[in-house]
């Protein structure tokens, strides 16, 4: 404390030993399933439909009265994620439309109280995830298009919306977050989004993050504010971009910090269910995204928008079954790895685990070799991952040549495993 003007020194956050363990495990998991699911799914036009089609809130709310996902089956979703090789699920507990997809006591506008379904799918999912060893994270929107206390569109003065009740809104969020952290077994992460809508308000992050870490210090907090990480956060995320690329302009501050990294992308061009979106990524594109994220030391969180009946469309299940088969075969070079000190190259990226360096050749060069610059270790052995066939290499002071002629080329990623000390 300064004493003189009674301004307390900002106490910075120190993660607990348990939190550091969650972070390490998070980095080991590498591949996660992002799920955007809500009442907007009925319209089949993405999760922004209320805002984009200018649907008045009171009309939009009617969707809840016939949202009845009778075919939702937590077992199927978790089995689908596992089959795809994913180790965790991040699901929208509440998106910008303000509808809570979980049984909350803090607002009647939730799936248990406002729909004919009357059940809590997130509780089912939490239980199934715990049973199946899949980690669960909750996405939570800071932005709310409907609540009177948030007062969407209101001018902001002194860090608060003049037409709303900011203290009430902050309290509401704290109460909901308390529910999400204390009622759902095994939750390991909170994924905030929507900060970017109001840059000039006081989000009370110290209190919100402090509360989360007080309730469960092992929980990881991340915030898709598109800025450099703030005090109290446990991981840094990049939306629709590999870390540092900033091709979408979402990551205004694309600097890569020291926290665990995650990059999220959609399986087609939509987050929420969009019946018209047939821009499906191929299994190869998804595998490349995963490999490229891992090579940049980041997790890949791949999003799907399930249908309003609770089913996942076949285009997604088919593609991800192929991805899953690939990851099953090549997981050694993905799970538990970290990005290499060798930066991404024209031919691909590298991942590291202990004394092993995995060379991911995603673009086979015209010349019969690839060159790995800046490898500090001494390579003692090079083999094809999977077959164990030895691979010719030559190490020079400036780097290592790997001879690709005759290598069994995998259409997705030819992986050479180096033993290097
Ligand atoms: O507006 C949202 C969008 O609907 C979606 O949830 C994505 C996920 O990263 N985040 C926001 C845009 O930054």
TrEMBL record:
GO terms for molecular function: alpha-L-fucosidase activity. Coiled coil: none annotated. Residues 5-332 form the Glycoside hydrolase family 29 N-terminal domain. The keyword Signal applies. It is an enzyme of class 3 (hydrolase). GO terms for biological process: fucose metabolic process; glycoside catabolic process. Its EC number is 3.2.1.51. It comes from the Bacteria. SMART domains: Alpha_L_fucos. GO terms for cellular component: lysosome. Keywords: Glycosidase, Hydrolase, Signal. The record marks 264 as: May be important for catalysis. It holds the Pfam family Alpha_L_fucos. Belongs to the glycosyl hydrolase 29 family. Alpha-L-fucosidase is responsible for hydrolyzing the alpha-1,6-linked fucose joined to the reducing-end N-acetylglucosamine of the carbohydrate moieties of glycoproteins. This is alpha-L-fucosidase. It comes from Mucilaginibacter glaciei.
């Amino acid at each position: 404390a300064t004493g003189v003007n009674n301004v307390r020194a900002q106490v910075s956050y120190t993660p607990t030993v348990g939190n550091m363990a969650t972070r390490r495990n998070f980095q080991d998991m590498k591949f996660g399933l992002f799920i955007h699911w809500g009442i907007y799914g009925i319209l089949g036009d993405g999760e922004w439909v209320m805002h984009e089609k200018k649907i008045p809130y009171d009309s939009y709310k009617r969707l809840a009265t016939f949202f009845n996902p009778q075919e939702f089956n937590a077992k199927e979703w978790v089995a689908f994620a596992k089959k795809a090789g994913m180790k965790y699920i991040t699901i929208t507990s509440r998106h910008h439309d303000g509808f809570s997809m979980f049984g909350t006591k803090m607002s009647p506008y939730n799936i248990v109280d406002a729909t004919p379904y009357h059940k809590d799918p997130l509780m089912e999912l939490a239980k199934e995830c715990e049973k199946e060893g899949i980690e669960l994270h909750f996405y939570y929107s800071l932005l709310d298009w409907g609540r009177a206390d948030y007062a969407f569109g209101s001018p902001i003065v002194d860090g608060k919306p003049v037409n709303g009740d900011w203290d009430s809104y902050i309290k509401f969020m704290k109460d909901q977050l308390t529910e999400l952290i204390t009622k759902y077994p095994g939750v390991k992460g909170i994924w905030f989004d929507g900060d970017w809508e109001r840059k000039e308000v006081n989000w009370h992050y110290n209190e919100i993050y402090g509360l989360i870490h007080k309730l469960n210090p092992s929980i990881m907090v991340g915030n898709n504010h598109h800025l450099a990480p703030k005090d109290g956060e446990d991981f840094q995320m990049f939306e629709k971009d590999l870390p540092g690329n900033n091709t979408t302009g979402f990551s205004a501050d694309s600097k890569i910090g020291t926290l665990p990294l995650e990059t999220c992308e959609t399986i087609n061009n939509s987050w929420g269910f969009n019946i018209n979106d047939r821009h499906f990524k191929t299994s190869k594109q998804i595998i490349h995204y995963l490999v490229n994220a891992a090579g940049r030391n980041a997790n890949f969180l791949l999003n799907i928008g399930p249908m309003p009946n609770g089913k996942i469309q076949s285009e997604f299940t088919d593609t991800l079954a192929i991805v899953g088969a690939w990851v099953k075969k090549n997981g050694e070079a993905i799970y538990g790895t970290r990005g290499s000190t060798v930066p991404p190259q024209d031919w691909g990226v590298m991942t590291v685990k202990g004394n092993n360096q995995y060379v991911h050749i995603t673009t086979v060069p015209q010349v019969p070799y690839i060159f790995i610059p800046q490898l500090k270790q001494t390579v003692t052995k090079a083999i094809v991952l999977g077959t164990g066939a030895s691979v010719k290499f030559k190490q020079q002071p400036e780097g290592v040549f790997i001879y690709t002629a005759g290598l069994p080329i995998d259409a997705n990623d030819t992986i050479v495993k180096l033993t290097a000390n």
